[in-house]
Amino acid sequence: MNIKRRDIRDVTVLELSGKLMGGDDAATFQNLVKQLLADGRKKILLNLGNLSWINSTGLGILISGYTSVKNGGGVLKLASVAERIESVLMITKLSTVFETYPTEDEALVTFGSE
Amino acid sequence: MNIKRRDIRDVTVLELSGKLMGGDDAATFQNLVKQLLADGRKKILLNLGNLSWINSTGLGILISGYTSVKNGGGVLKLASVAERIESVLMITKLSTVFETYPTEDEALVTFGSE
Amino acid sequence: MNPSGGWESVELVVPSSLEYLSLVNAVAEEISERLGIEREVRDAIGSSVIEACTNAIEHGNKNDRKKSVRIRFRSNSERLEIEVSDQGKGFDPDSIADPRDPANLMRERGRGIFILRTFMDEVRFAIEPSRGTTVTMSKKLGPALPKEG
Amino acid sequence: MNPSGGWESVELVVPSSLEYLSLVNAVAEEISERLGIEREVRDAIGSSVIEACTNAIEHGNKNDRKKSVRIRFRSNSERLEIEVSDQGKGFDPDSIADPRDPANLMRERGRGIFILRTFMDEVRFAIEPSRGTTVTMSKKLGPALPKEG
Lengths: 114, 114, 149, 149
Ligand SMILES: Nc1ncnc2c1ncn2[C@@H]1O[C@H](COP(=O)(O)OP(=O)(O)O)[C@@H](O)[C@H]1O
Ligand SMILES: Nc1ncnc2c1ncn2[C@@H]1O[C@H](COP(=O)(O)OP(=O)(O)O)[C@@H](O)[C@H]1O
What we know:
Chain A has 114 residues and is an alpha/beta fold. Helices cover 39% and strands 32% of the residues of chain A. Chain A is built from four helices and five strands; from the N terminus they run ββαβαβαβα. In chain A, helix 1 links the parallel strand 2 (11-20) and strand 3 (43-54). Chain C is an alpha+beta fold. In chain C, a hairpin with a 3-residue loop joins strand 2 (68-75) and strand 3 (79-85). The complex binds adenosine-5'-diphosphate (2 copies). One adenosine-5'-diphosphate binds at residues 55-56, 59-60, 86, 88, 90-91, 96, 109-114, 133 of chain D.
């Protein structure tokens, strides 16, 4: 997995690409999320448009990120989830946990501005 | 391999896609070339832009096409040859046999109009 | 892919490292595409193979690159059967909790077996503690035509 | 792909039918890409593997889908070695004519072995008429970094 970061006002967009599957990905993602929270950046949008697939370990990474952000008083949402990943979220009912939007723009407006 | 045919004035453009590798491909291609010659269409341009790879059996198919067309008093040229295929043509010196052009348009003007 | 009508098989053996999951995924994709399987089902098969291999690599072979994971794809005109074997100690597949239970929903792990059981038509585990675990999953094939090209 | 520095191998076994060449090509691509091999060399490796497998399928196993072709990719930090084995009767690799000779240039066949000998750094044939032919080809690897992702 690769991560590209963009800040759009108070929302931090993280573009994940490649595949999310555990191994080094877990620490990379957790550290980045911790750093963002420490910097006071609490509105996080994961753009999964370029993520080709995910395994259940990858789902765990998303959940741990979600939990960290929530516990830190922030929000984490998803945008542009590919069909293959969407269907894994559906069957595991994680689609009831993650707020998900078809596009980044549609997600951005839901954060509310400061 | 799939073949799409387009007639541009007296030149017949055959767009080959997929992979050219023997098996059924040989008969499909030979029959088409024979039909074209029988119909008096003797200027043939093979657009290989969507051909992802070729094996030596596929090279043989191109050669047999070339020979049939030449013996029938026509010309067969190549356009948009991908790098992977180009390098096979180079090392086998078949690049000295086939007249090859970077684009279809560049090839078309070299046929001369009737 | 298989005009004879009988079973035909492709086998892939990879070292026990998660890095090889993309290769496994590429092979699963290529095989399902060849069998004329539609996008959605191909995704389900790909996700299932990835889960089975993740387990074989992590739990079965404990990420020991010297141990290998064997994946066998067998197909006939009616179904695609995929076998994933490791050299680990096995486990009790009946003790797997439902990850959708509210108590489990926010857990970070425990979804792999559920995913393959949900996506595939049939899943069997053959566990021989001395030799390893083999997961066999199968998917019925619709009357689709193989892709040309 | 191989932090341990030793050899690591991936094995693929397919039925003897040309239809499986695209699967072989996809695996060769995926493995070379992972090893950080640049485009041009990847193409050369792909073409060579395809030629060796075409021969194994057509000449070695005579297109008998019940016979299989085994492809083994072994790599360490210095080179990628690819073995292609069939169950055929073998042949005399020293009798292969140069397809670039004017007398041969327009022939429809006879370029496979020349292609792999040209593209790869080393090519060996082990022919055991009772068991089959194994072509082993290797390519030196430059000091490139594996792709992330
Ligand atoms: N191939 C295997 N070998 C040994 N144990 C396994 C294997 N597959 C699964 N398990 C066991 O079953 C448990 C549940 O697996 P799974 O549902 O895939 O979730 P997870 O891998 O996230 O724990 C694992 O934690 C492991 O203990
Ligand atoms: N694996 C093999 N088993 C048996 N014979 C082979 C094998 N590979 C090559 N040959 C023989 O060598 C000849 C030359 O092979 P090649 O250079 O690939 O050209 P082509 O396959 O087009 O004939 C073949 O015609 C065949 O007789």
